[in-house]
Design a protein that fits this description.
By secondary structure, the chain is an all-alpha fold. It has helices at about 5-15, 30-55.
């Protein structure tokens, strides 16, 4: 059984809705679209990690505490 056969079998069973694969006969436009999506995912992941790191070093309530009685 090939990977494509396995995905097709799972799709028919309703387990896998849409695998993140590009068919062998895909056009350059489709490949470029997938690469762009992957790049966006990497950028979003980097931003999320940076934000998480910032929250680790800056606890809630950190900031301007002047004139608070």
């Amino acid at each position: 059984m090939t990977v494509d056969d396995w995905y097709e079998q799972r799709r028919k069973q309703g387990i896998v809705s849409n695998p993140q694969r590009v068919p062998a006969g895909a056009s350059d436009e489709e490949l470029q679209k997938q690469e762009t999506e992957e790049k966006d995912d990497e950028e979003a992941l980097r931003k999320a990690r940076d934000w998480d790191d910032w929250k680790d070093t800056h606890p809630r309530g950190y900031g301007n505490r002047h004139n608070m009685g």
